[in-house]
Every structure is written in structure tokens, then in C-alpha cells.
């Protein structure tokens, strides 16, 4: 231990992060060991680079932003059946898997536990996880297959999530046979001076690396290897908080296969030109998603010859990838975006500091930043009321909340109020 501790001290001195050991002697042996493990895993050069980027102004001025083509699912006419039949064949062959990103907690909903365990208030009192499981099982039964289900948790909620599934007998799935759990990546949080924080538990203050970490997590955890072993060629990735997510969609699969693209995404048309959502576009000729803050009013309001918004296709985190694309995107980390947050921490005297305003940076990768790695992708516009009922806010906000999701779910499934 002494030799190991000295080695860690030398690393920290080199990078000016000696504060990570300020409270080392106050920890028990188990936590001492864990803290050293965490420090040894930190890529300090990456942390320095991320910190330096927080000081640079954001500049998208040199990027050329142009509209991107899309297909409307309900205007395909005779092509609808054509694409559907291609997708049905692929699903029946057992080439599709579903991935649910479920690393979050239900804190904003006033829920104490993983967000996937949240009950949106249906008479059945089914959790988000069970609603998704029901849909997967129902769709699989149509094609005579079981759709393998991969669930990305976080260090924070993994144990609770797995226990929840055990308690509910995995909703008819079989662990390590057709349902698998893997943990999202994390990065240290740093203060405004670039110093890595220590959390209230005495260990490195870590935060999930954003939904863009999904590719790297799937590869590093061995999940893509497992998928290949199972004969999987296509992977649908969606969030746990959309109770109407359609993970098995033969039309989307058929379009991807027919057009020879490795990524196919769903969109819903913006509720209004200035809705605060990311929208699909081309950035310097390649597929991308542009944040609402990057679009001028003129661009947001621009329409095509048919009166449709030029930048009207909202990214709703419903994306289909070939397994080749996931492995390629997971080979290297995506660029990280800094978010300025409030973060409690231990100071050098071992006292817990709970700030009242933002004091630290967390770093997240965005799933859609990988879209620029492909030459082309397919976008399928779907109906919001049929496929997009997210639960992000509490009912007081009035949108994307349990009440709105519950209403959409009941209406879609024709459940009596």
C-alpha cells in the first residue's frame, strides 16, 4: 500500500491534483483502496483538456448548417408495405436487439429510486420498466422471437435496478440469456480552477458521461460481443422515460436496410418554430443534430415549398444502429460538452460544502455527435401522439410530465379513463 500510495502521490503532484488525498487518512481501509483505484483510472490529460475547453468560447459560426431530408411514415403510400416487409423479415430472423438508457434517478419527479421504477399513475400501477417490457414482449410475439433487451444503468442506480428486476422476475425475461445490464461510463467533476472534487463519501466526485457514452459503454462492457454471439445486426437505442417508445419498428428497419444506411432515426415535427428541442440537419454536409440555441430566428421559421419547417424534425432519442456502426462509434470517446452545475463536495478539512449556485463542471457526450461519422442516415417522421410521451418533469411544469404521458398512453392504447 505504501508504495502504491507514493505512486499515486507522484501522479497527483505532476497534475496539481494533490487535494484528492486531503481526507485520505480519515477513510477506512476499504475506502482508501477504492479511492486509490479511482485515482489510478483517471485520465488526467483528458481532464486538463476538458478544463481548458471550458475557457474557450463556443463558436459554431464556421459550420455550414443546411436542412436534411426525411420520410414521413404516414405519407409513404405503397412504399410503406415495401419497407415494412423488409423489416419484418429481418426481425423474424432475430437480428434486432433493444437498448434502454436507464442511468437516471427520478429526483425531478419526486421519486426516490431509478427513473425506470417510476409509476406514471396508470390504474395498473406499472412502472416505466414494465411498460417497456410489455411492449417488447408483445412485439416479439408477433414475429415469433424474443427481442434481447440490454439496459444501461449507472453506478448510482445499478444495484437498485437489478434488484427491482429480480423482484419482478425480470418481467418474463431471463437474466444473462435475453436481458443484460451494463453500467454507463463516468467522468470526474471539477471546480472552476480545474481541481477534481471529492464527494461526500470521500471518493472522487463522478458524474455520468451523458447519453453519448452509450457506444463506448456497449463496447467496453462486452455487450456488442454478446450481441454478435446472438446474431444481432441491428440495435434500437432509446430512453427509459418515453412510455410510448416503439423499439420494434419494421418500417424503420426496412428503410435502413433498403437504403443501405447504418443509422436510422425517428423524429417528430416541432410543436412550433421556436420549441426548445434539438433538430436534425446537415452540418458541413454530414448528418447532425443542432441545438435550438444554435438556430437563428430566421432559420427556425424558414419553410419549404410545401409549407413545412426546414428545421422541424425534432430528435427524440429513438435511434436504430447497425452493430458495425456502434462498434465504430465506440472505438473512441466522443467530444465532451461541459455543463455548469451545483455539486456538493468535501473541502480540505473534511467538511461537506453544499453550494447554492453552480460551482462545478460535469462533462457529457451527446449521442448525436456520432452522427457526423456516417456519410448518410435515414430519418423517419412519426406522430408525437403515437410514439413520444416522455416523463421528464413533475406535473407542476405541465409538459413532458406524468400527467401528459399518462394521457397519451391511455389514448394510444384506448384505456378507459
Produce the secondary structure layout.
Layout: H1 2-15, H2 29-41, H3 44-54, E1 65-66, E2 71-72, H4 78-92, E3 96-101, H5 128-143, E4 149-153, H6 158-167, E5 179-183, E6 186-188, E7 190-191, E8 206-208, H7 214-220, H8 223-229, E9 234-239, H9 250-259, E10 263-269, E11 279-283, E12 286-290, H10 297-301, E13 313-322, H11 323-329, E14 337-341, E15 345-346, E16 352-353, E17 360-364, E18 378-381, H12 384-387, H13 402-412
Parallel strand pairs: 2-18, 3-4, 3-9, 4-5, 10-18
Antiparallel strand pairs: 1-11, 6-8, 7-17, 9-13, 10-13, 11-12, 14-17, 15-16
Helix pairs in contact: 4-9, 7-11
Characterization of the model:
The chain has helices spanning 2-15, 29-41, 44-54, 78-92, 128-143, 158-167, 214-220, 223-229, 250-259, 297-301, 323-329, 384-387, 402-412; strands spanning 65-66, 71-72, 96-101, 149-153, 179-183, 186-188, 190-191, 206-208, 234-239, 263-269, 279-283, 286-290, 313-322, 337-341, 345-346, 352-353, 360-364, 378-381. The chain is an alpha/beta fold. The protein has one domain: Spore Coat Polysaccharide Biosynthesis Protein SpsA, Chain A (Alpha-Beta Complex). The strands form five sheets. It has an eight-stranded mixed sheet. Strands 1-11-12 form a three-stranded antiparallel sheet, with no helix packed on it. Helix 7 (214-220) crosses helix 11. The chain starts with a helix and ends in a 5-residue tail after the last helix. The model has no long low-confidence stretch (mean pLDDT 94).
Brief summary:
The protein has 13 helices and 18 strands. Helix 4 packs across helix 9 and helix 7 crosses helix 11.
